[in-house]
Specification:
The protein is of the alpha/beta class. It has a single domain, classed as Rossmann fold (3-Layer(aba) Sandwich). The strands form 5 sheets. It has a 4-stranded parallel beta sheet. The chain has a 3-stranded mixed beta sheet with strand order 11-8-13. Helix 2 links the parallel strand 3 and strand 4. Helix 4 packs across helix 7. The longest helix is centred in the first third of the chain and has 22 residues.
Length: 308
Amino acid sequence: SAPEAAGSLELVALSRQSRPADFLQGIPCRRIDFDDPGSFRGTLEDLDAVVHLAGLARSSDPRAFYRANRDGLAVLLEALARHGPGVRHLLFASSQTAVGPVPEGQEATDEGSPCRPISHYGASKLAAEQVLRQAPLPWTILRLPAVWGRYDPDGLNILKTARGGLLPVIGGREAVLSYIFAQDLAPLLPRMILNERLYRGVFNAGYDRPVRLGEYCLAVRRLLGLPPRLRTLPLPRWTGYLAMAGLAVVRRLAGGNPAATADKVREFMAGRWVQSNLRLKEALGLDELAERGALADTVVWFRGQGLL
């Protein structure tokens, strides 16, 4: 849970929601509006540091990504300048997608790799990083890979795919990706907050070992007590482009934010999303970052919720 991960830190949540999410139970929650810097009055004055985890990861409207991710961060920075005189550090959760997938012929990207985002989500996160670099207060950029765990709908969709036993593979390339579970990411954050070694630096998170999506699905099936067999459904690359065109039509006709979007299909088709975590491990004095039970915990939790 968040309080356990925080250790000796006193946590306060800033939320856009009028009713705090279930996972914020036990944490005082203050409501704010990322469209209005004035809404932060009375919420920042007693804080020493801010961890900015809010963002928009899925939308059928490309402009919404930039409003939420880039402009939302700019509003937070303005609010901190007005109402957060005691805040000494801003830890910003960016994304691996700000860099883009691994170029052909390379094993992984790192913090020095050229940024070539292929989705509006990734481009909006990169734009937010550029805004943050101009901020006067000490900041740290943490580029997250896929983060799964309890409450996460994207992670649940993969678990359901594993349960079904059929994995689509577009263009003959099975997805290989860096990832981390929220249960293992959360304990890292207190070690990063107000850590001067990390000020004005960019760091990649993720386990030491990336995973093939098929390998991950087989592990899930074992935990579910199902035969460790997985069928793949090879699909030509043009089906991905067809899906993007179809989703664009759905957006125009129905509006809203469908579960699948052209942005997500584009990222899925890229195939290899692997980033090095060596710089973060060195900065925090970690020998390894490995998954040791978080997947099993997540599967048990979703089954207990009747969702798997």
